[in-house]
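pasting for ref
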Amino acid sequence: MQSHETFPSTDIPHAASQRPGRNEAEAALVEHYPRLVRLAHLILPPALGRHRRVLAAHALVQKSLSSAAPSRLADAADGPTVPAQRGEPGPVLAWLRQHVVSAALRAAGRPRWSLGRTPFPTVLGLRLFPGAGGDDELVLESTLATVTPEVRAAFALRVLEGLTAQSSALLLAAAGVSAPEEVLRVAERIRSTVGRDAESLLHGAEFDPCTVQARPTDLLRRRHRTRLTALAAAVLLAASTTAVLALRPEPSERPAPSSPATALAAASARAADPGLLLRTPADRWSDTARVDLTQWPARGAGTGDTALLTRALTAWTQVTGDRSGDRTGVRLTVTPDTPASPPAAPARLLFAGPVDGSAVVLLHDGERIIRYAEPLSRRGEAAIGEPAVGEPAVELARADDADVTTGAAVALSRTPRGVRFLLAPWIDESAVRDLRRPDVPAQRLAVSEFGVTDPVPQAPNDCGRVPAMQVRSSTRIVEDHSFLLADLGELSPTHLTWTPAPGTGAPARQPREATSAAGLAAWARSACALQELRGTGVRAVNRWEFAQQSLPERAGRATWTCTRAESWDGRGRVAVAWEGPDARSRPVTVPGPAPEDTAACSRFGQHLLAGTYWTAPSGARYYLAAGSRAVTAITARGPVSATGRGPVLAVRANTTGSVRLTGTVPGSGELRGWGEGETDPAGS
């Protein structure tokens, strides 16, 4: 990577501390304006929304000019100077860069206060947002959204600006970062994960706030607001004539402050009031940067049924307050790691209406999905997973940080016919396919006017078929892509992704949607393992093919996989498996640890080494080992003693027993093996 620095890194704080004249600062700002705006845009929190984030980045850069010294004073103090060559960074750019970083970090720390004091460029009637990037840009944007503004600043300085670690640390310290070395270490981990493409990705359309797309705001709402403004002006004019009469001294007696118990009771009463339920406008999802459950409109034939909504809110409040459910007559079901607490504020209404013989209410409180169901008829058939006839039920499930994919569907009912889902408003197409038969085309899934699907079949216990939904998002959110969702018995279906095997000389690959022919063929091998994850609180599962190996005796090609299941609380469980050349054979799990939380097989755990015994068709026995793409050598010790260069190892073995594996990863030291137990994939 070519560095932009043309002066010693140790001189940056000194150069940045000298305030340039406004004429010099304006010239440098105009010349490097796109660069500085991109830097501010990268540091600002994505939670601002795309439109507000773009305008805030421009505002922060433009406001930096006001901190420059008056040109006459600067010129008098410094005397005549020779201007820097055009395009050559100098002390003025260093000063602007430090000022922009400091201002962006302050704004990110207190966005409402800081940005409220920074007048934005005026844009009326339009919404602005950068162009959409590819899959790699979206993955990087999602990664940066999970870290602190200080880490994003360090990442931008190292990758976007090309500063050295020392220069970046000095600049961050000058900007008020208390531990610049720590944030630089986190930024370096992200940089190593992205690889050599990090700089080109940051220069892509996804991170360019100077090349934007424009869309109109809600035209009907804007018209309505214009009328309301005129009406408000008339009311203010009438009210101003009597304002003096209202300016009377307040009574000397003040109400006593409420106790915590009183405040809690008042909050609970507000949360249980159906009239205070939040309702998102129908088309809000198509013009927002936050495409998640908060953008779902209220749908269903019962959204105006106050009695039903009251029963749902009352049941939620009472059953979570009582916890046992014995005195409430309501059954409570809570998915793993989900807080079972009563509502603390009015929730958002997502759905209310009849579904498969039950009245269902679906709510979202920002962190959880709440599903309430009560039978419509005592003579109706009880649904699978539902309580007995006449008994209502409340189900809670985590849904924090749900996005376009993990917030794309919610289960409404389960019957012998299958599972009905309520689809997100941004889903344009939906179909059902069998993961076990990737060559069979997906069958179109009918959807009602309220977004409720026809029943999706459930997977049988014998894994004869594994149904999954294949959906496509709308082009109105610039996220036109299809993805897979698998039902694992919870309210939210699980998002399935796939990371292909490393190519020769190719950079590290990122997880991608598994809807391609290769992705579907890969998941056909791992589909049966999904049943082991039912009811465990999984939001996404990625199948990573970390190595491929040519088997001895020309027996074909084996694939080594690591399947990582991410929970809603951020924890990840993994399973390493060996797959033979026969696509009809089941994967064989490689023995190894089973921690509840590990970084293995994630972007922060990209190094993996595993081994197993294998019996060839001739009857000869071998020990096989394979590592991820960064492994340059493998050593086996124990019953098998061998060393080989490269990421794979195959050695003849006439014994059994646990083998100790170590791999060499340049720059990371030794890598311990995952599997050390004895299995026989071909002979089983």
